[in-house]
Specification:
- There is one protein chain.
- The protein has nine helices and ten strands.
- By secondary structure, the chain is of the alpha/beta class.
- The longest helix is centred in the C-terminal third of the chain and has 16 residues.
- The chain is globular and about 50 Å long.
- The structure holds adenosine-5'-diphosphate and magnesium ion.
- Magnesium ion (MG) binds next to helix 1.
């Protein structure tokens, strides 16, 4: 397993947002997290990226316990890319500088190496000619694709995507989804929180339904989305479709 979350517990203000959550992700696997708003999807992704500290349980990446207090969060985050719903690009920096800022400043990568890698990624996703542009010259879909490139430039082992299409106008969703589909084709391991059930069905190897901070049900998309075992999964799917 590339990622192993065991009995993960995260408490906010006395409320267990993650309540004994267990989830494994194999290398090259794409897992879609679905569930009602507040079920803990974003919190889980933030805990895996060590942006939030768990209160109990363990998270292993490549067999190493990253939730061990001795683990170096910067090194862990180099191996795990996280992209949010809002792309958070710096408006006063070019696309290329947005992408290379963290690798250079945080991870100490040589500037030219980071820039070269960023250019290669931009080329692969069809944004090569935008490298010197400022974010406000880009469409929302292009900005989100740049944000994904920014998460890829350290060659992470795992990519976490948190509702990356929800802030986009409907006509811009497709270009981001097709980029994710391409990354899957290249074998990228991904965990994506989404409420795009059609996309989850197409791209995910496995769908995990979160309910009250646990994985209540998981399995192949056609099973979980088409013929769920749990009444709560069925209720959720009826409400959103
Ligand atoms: P989802 O992404 O599935 O909608 P979240 O993980 O964002 O769910 O939130 C789960 C619960 O945790 C919500 O009730 C939310 O209010 C709470 N929560 C998330 N982050 C914080 C925080 N930093 N402080 C307090 N409560 C939080
Ligand atoms: Mg969320």
């Amino acid at each position: 397993m590339l990622l192993e979350c065991r009995d993960v517990r995260k408490v906010f203000g006395g409320h267990a947002v993650l309540d004994g959550l267990t989830l494994d992700v194999a290398e090259h696997e794409v897992v879609a997290l679905i569930g009602a708003s507040g079920s803990g999807k974003s919190t889980l992704l933030r805990c895996v990226n060590l942006l939030a500290e768990i209160d109990d349980g363990t998270i292993h990446l490549d067999g190493e316990e990253i939730t061990d207090p001795r683990a170096d969060p910067d090194l862990v985050r180099r191996r795990i890319g996280l992209v949010f719903q809002s792309y958070n690009l710096f408006p006063h920096m070019t696309v290329l500088d947005n992408i290379t800022l963290a690798p250079v400043r945080v991870h100490g990568r040589p500037v030219e190496e980071a820039r070269e890698q960023a250019r290669q990624w931009l080329d692969r996703v069809g944004l090569a000619e935008k490298s010197g542009a400022y974010p406000d010259r880009l469409s929302g879909g292009q900005q989100q694709r740049v944000a994904i490139v920014r998460a890829l430039v350290n060659n992470p082992r795992l990519l976490l995507l948190d509702e990356v299409t929800s802030a986009l106008d409907p006509e811009l969703v497709g270009e981001v989804l097709s980029m994710i589909r391409e990354l899957k084709g290249e074998g990228m391991t991904m965990v994506l929180a989404t409420h795009e059930m059609g996309f989850a069905r197409q791209v995910a190897d496995r769908v995990a339904f979160l309910d009250a901070g646990r994985v209540l049900e998981q399995g192949p998309p056609e099973q979980v989305l088409g013929d769920p075992v749990e009444a709560r999964t069925r209720q959720f799917l009826t409400r959103i479709i």
